[in-house]
Amino acid sequence: SDGPLAASGTWYFRRVTRGSAPFHAIGSAVVELGEFADVVDALLVDAEAAAITYRISEALISMGTACEIASERYIDRAGRSDDEQVEALLRERVPFAVRRLNLVPDYIHGRRFESDSPEAFGLVVRMYKARNNVVHEGTAYEKLSEGNFAVTPAVALEFLGASQAAVAWLKALNDERRD
Q1: Is there a contact between 156 and 59 (Cβ–Cβ < 8 Å)?
Q2: Count of H helices and E strands in the chain?
Q3: What is the average per-residue pLDDT within 148-167?
Q4: Which residues lie closer than 8 Å to 157 by C-beta, 6 or more apart?
């Protein structure tokens, strides 16, 4: 067949060929199929794939980015993007998860992720610290009281579950506000 992703070859060898498509055809396909995947959801899917395939640094960066975007959307959808108190809370010199999942939601909705999901909150705190180690030092590890430990795929998947819970929690807060 023809098209931007035409497959050709025999039954034992198939290859995807590059092609071109007019812009209006891409737009029509989007209308038929629905919107493009949400970037937060896509980042979390990418994080899972990365963790499973031992690309832990990439998984941590995807999870951290997904949580940050979800937090920004939460603030924006709550109508607080220009709120001076929110801006002050975001400047606090405390861990990411404390600012984004406790202080700001407590100010806006009177809720804290740490209170609603203490275990998941603790995992997000650990995930973001490990993510910072990747960004600043290039290595996916956790600094624990017993020493430094590499983040394993199993731990990364625990972090992923907590990140998914945090993203869902922020979305639910905005949905509650609309009801």
Answers
A1: yes
A2: 9, 4
A3: 97
A4: 48, 51, 52
